[in-house]
Amino acid sequence: MWCSGLRKRYGKRTAVDGVSFSVGRGEVVGLLGPNGAGKTSVIKMLLGLVRPDDGEVLLLGRPGRDPRARERVGYLPELFRYQPWLTAAEVLTLHVRLSGARVPAAEQADVLARVGLAARSGDRVGGFSKGMQQRLGLAVALVARPELVVLDEPTSALDPLGRVDVRDVVLDLRERGVAVLLNSHLIGEVERVCDRVVILDRGRVAASGTLAELLGQRELRLRLDGLTPAAEARMAAVGAVTRTGREVTVALPAGEEDAVVPALVADLVGLGVRVHAVEPVRISLEERLLGILREEHA
Amino acid sequence: MSTALTFAGLTLREAARRKVLRALGLLTLALLGLSAWGFAKLATVDPEFGALTSGEARLFASQLLNLVMFGYSLIAALGTAFLAGPTLSGEVESGQALSILARPVRRATVLAGKWLGLVAFGTGYVFAAGLAQFAVVYWAVGFWPPDPVVGLLLLAAQTTVLMTLALLLATAVSPMASGIVAVGLFGATWVAGVVGSVGELIGNDGVARVGEVSRMLLPTDGLWRGAMHAFQDTTSLAAAGFEGSPFLAIAPLSGGYLVWVAVWLVLIGGLAALSFGRRDV
């Protein structure tokens, strides 16, 4: 999925102003931003639900204005409502037929089971709770063997178990090479599953990149006694070292934290250093998001 | 085409599952019962004025049948117009349209499918209720309309016209507003038709033109008059010299008018497709 220069005005208010980003196959991209940032408008423009005033969209190699571009796209809207007079199984059959895919009834039943609705497949949607309707929406997004899945606030009505289920579904989609665009207010959720993040603010892209790019390198905070030149050299071999009295901070190489930290601590102990505290730290996505938004609004 | 048929089937299934069919069925049975009673009374001897002649009986039966058929056409037209609003703008408002329109479907196809479903619904109702009513009248007074199929087709067309207008309105305004405006225009056109008939009766061309213009702008009243003509006994009508009654029609519909109805449907349907295609959901 690729979009460039998306713009949308509602009357005098500019909702989306020159938004460009892409989601590759097997990649999970998170869309973050405060209320009214234009996230849902961007998603609706990608799916042909809202007409952009300007800009281009490509879905799975086809221009977004061509309905066939959406043949292999699954979508869970923020406002999830399904025909209350149909059963859950009938809703899935309808969506399979509209997508043009051939999905056997057994596979459709598997999708319902995957979202925890196997026992309710023959029940009318009108009797479903909000959480169950959102689970059904997730099944609708997954049922037609999509290659791009767009999830707009997929856990807003779900309990903690449901959130874990959604996380597993997203990770499974990534494993299978499906592109996923995830809009969520739950930053922790985004941080756990997303490869890249696009932060929107007042209709513009305020920041974007991989989590490592956005959050910076991890670092290791240590409280040490009895530092020797050999120990200092050992720490410098890992990364840049800053020292204030007993407090030492060592920058960690990206992606190697798990291997480096235990080895460094073992070596320091071996060199006679007394280790009081070890704390690997990284700025959270939430802190970074708030920082970016404050800079934008300053 | 198969996508349009999917939506047509979905619209009919919605009408059935939301108990619209059951409600209409009960209402129609009540109307049939009442009219059977009324027609049976018409066939009996009036103690004050003596027995009706066969010509009078046919004339009254014609007028009474047209009155009852007006009731059915109201139910069919208003019912379908009120179904059209929720099925389109109601789905957009509730969010039901989001996941559907994000599928590889053209909006014009979705609209055409819903239109087809509503046409099937309105036509089915008009034929079922109309034929049942004809049977009741035949049983009570032995009168069978001269052109029942043409009349019922014109009533179905009247239903289609009002429903198409309601669909166009539903692409732009709320379901409630679209239903109210469509029904209001239907009523206004009928009243304008009656006013036009009065104008014809008193020979006032200006007043008569009110009816003609309104029948062009919204062809419901014109089609209703054509249907009435197909239901009534023309010979008794001519002999009695009835003119200007809102429940009797002197002339059949012209071919030109039917062509205009077809053009009107294409125009309004096209506008609805254009409006729905441009709407942000």
UniProtKB/TrEMBL annotation, chain A:
- Where is the chain membrane-spanning? none
> Domain of life, per the record?
Bacteria
Alphabetically sorted, this entry's keywords are:
ATP-binding, Nucleotide-binding, Transport
Q: Which residue ranges does the record assign to the ABC transporter domain?
A: 1-227
Protein name, please? ABC-2 type transport system ATP-binding protein
Q: Mind telling me which CDD domains this protein's record contains?
A: ABC_DR_subfamily_A
Q: Which organism is it from?
A: Geodermatophilus nigrescens
Task: Note the InterPro entries from the entry.
Answer: AAA+_ATPase, ABC_transporter-like_ATP-bd, ABC_transporter-like_CS, P-loop_NTPase
The Swiss-Prot or TrEMBL record describes its family as follows: Belongs to the ABC transporter superfamily.
Question: Which GO terms fall under molecular function for this chain's record?
Answer: ATP binding; ATP hydrolysis activity
Automatic annotation (TrEMBL), chain B:
This protein's superkingdom? Bacteria
Q: What are the transmembrane regions?
A: 20-40, 60-84, 115-140, 152-173, 180-199, 257-277
Q: Which residues form a coiled coil?
A: none
Q: Which UniProt keywords apply?
A: Membrane, Transmembrane, Transmembrane helix
**Is the keyword Amino-acid biosynthesis assigned to this protein?**
no
Signal sequence coordinates: none
Protein name in UniProt: ABC-type transport system involved in multi-copper enzyme maturation, permease component
